[in-house]
Amino acid sequence: MSNVEAEPAALKCGAVAGDAGAGQGAAVEVLSAREVPLGGPRALLVRRTLPQRARTLIGAWCFADHYGPVDASGTGMDVPPHPHTGLQTVSWLFSGEIEHRDSLGTHALVRPGEMNLMTGGHGIAHSEVSTARTTVLHGVQLWVALPEEHRHTARDFQHHVPATVRRDGAEIKVFLGSLVGSTSPVRTFTPLLGAEIVLGPGATLTLPVDPAFEHGLLVDSGDVRLSGTALRPTDLGYLPRGTDTLTVANDSGTPARTVLLGGPPFEEEIVMWWNFIGRSHEDIVRAREDWQADSGRFGTVEGYPGGRLPAPALPNAVITPRRNPRHP
Ligand code: MN
To answer: What range defines the domain where residue 237 resides?
Structure first.
């Protein structure tokens, strides 16, 4: 997916040095979503929880869009070829089907329960279109910031279908990292956790987690409590590092669907604008120029019936660095 906000804010993000983590019993911070139209006359509305003023990253997770369930029998999703650099995209669907084409020559279908991880590295381009047989579109689009030593890595695409682990009335699919004895074989450039957790009615799940990780629980449906704190659908509950056990409870009489994200705090400052992540304003300007000039950096997407997505105009203001807030 493309970040097609008409005037995307330039963000300088980074973990705060000396954020000690609040340890066991830390309060869950509730991050609310804001609605963002994904462009076009019949824009798909997405709910964005990362980045936001209160928090820019959870581990290397730097972007979280949650969309649907939405009637996609008409237009659905149609994002023309657009570039990425310095990041990986993770597509995870609950319902529907998206046709992915990229400048590696990949032509893949994104389906529920199947993760597609695309590495932008130095540069990639891709298009995403919901298929004609899709009636309901529902899922998440997540981005991972690449660390300095790998941010210019070669473009790549990986597909993984995780097994379902059943525990304490929950069904868990680990698409990145390790949880409840299930480990994803997909390579990441920093330690990461990504898992879909569906809790049965009234279920309470106790999860041993890495205390070096901070975590975020995105709620899709249900009355969910994360380590005692109530979350509403579309909320992202955040817990700092220093916690070795999470509890996730479903107070509703119907199943609750959540997505758990985690990783050690990302220590580098990053600059994020449109679909690019860099380390400086100049990195962003260069990436935008390379895309606009079709320089070859991002390659060519074959098979999309239409033109490329032009980059929006750069902001004319100086980018103000933004950091994660310090935790007590
Ligand atoms: Mn994209």
So the answer is: 11-19+30-263
